[in-house]
Amino acid sequence: MRGNVQGVGYRQACCRAATALGVAGWVRNRSDGSVEVQAEGQNQQLLDLRLWCESGPAGALVSEVIPSLMPIAGDDWFEIRR
What we know:
Elements: E1 2-4, H1 10-21, E2 24-29, E3 35-40, H2 43-55, E4 61-64, E5 78-81
Parallel strand pairs: 2-5
Antiparallel strand pairs: 1-4, 2-3
């Protein structure tokens, strides 16, 4: 995600949203000011998480979401990475 997405609780809120949706994976801040999310789940779960990511928590101003396909890691949890 790009925009005003760091310093607004984005990672914590994303982790809560992903966990509530039953999605596995991780979220982390990037040095360029963006936030990166890698997620695994059913198509509807991933669509719901993407829709959440497009708005984020209160205080976030998401300007861009760039989706990509990644190899499945097989994780069964969602975590915040540093």
